[in-house]
Fold this protein.
Amino acid sequence: MHNILELKNLQKQYATQKAVDDVSFSIEQGSIFGLLVPNGAGKTTLLRMITGIFYPDSGDLLFDGKPFDPQNDFVHIGYMPEERGLYKKMKIGEQAMYLAQLKGLSKSEALEKIKFWFKKFEMESWWNKKVEDLSKGMSQKLQFVTTVLHEPKLIILDEPFSGLDPLNANLIKDEIYGLAQRGSTIIFSTHRMEQVEEICDHIILMNLGKKILDGTVTDVKQQFKENKFNVQFKGQPTELVSPIFTIEHQEKQQLIVKINDGYNSNHVLNYLLQQDVLIERFNEILPSLNDIFIHLVEGSKATTRAFQNN
């Protein structure tokens, strides 16, 4: 697979504030890419540069291996913003037709694809409704359909599950997987870290306009692990004192241990077996993306405050 999108040293500044500060990363075709950015830390500016709404002050943006050309490449991009981008007074069927043709589909192609998606999402009876008559969840489904129906190479979804009940959220999630399997690339932006862990292959974390983390979900969690293990055992708890680990939490038949420097999990297991502990489960505790996100964002804020105070 080749890279569908490459950002090289992208910068964008407003007055004295750098909204995007020397950001570089690449996104592989067919991947589901998580973009994690706190509020007010450069996400909207970055997405608007990727979609051609804003131009960067400096840096390069490549789309499908070539310099990004907003006038021609926009038809290969589907963008679902966090804020609704639908015309409230317009009938839903007419609006879907208009947006599909705006993305380069003929009237017959647009009608065929709209009918397909409306049937799949049980929206066939909505054709003559107006957007203002829809619930938040219903309008979110419509916005998703109008984002993907022209089969774009790159799909940007900003908080796509907002307002959806669990059933419809699962419906959208299944379609995201399906689109990626068929070759579309997804940029998925949300504040719900558990959704990122479940859905994404690769993540970028930005704060204060800078990239502060870049990697696969698995690699990122491995990078920030704290050498902690969960031990579940049978029988009565045993008095355990060892230089190999520190017990951070103990219940009736469970221990949370942190392995000390110079030792590994095999040392812990051997010690427990020597103490006749009947182990039922022994597994490493990896940090959640939510914990990593908070740790890094708070850390970057503290660094900025210290710099400003000097």
The CA atoms of residues 187 and 232 lie 39 Å apart. The two ends are 47 Å apart (CA to CA). DSSP finds ten helices and 14 strands in the chain.
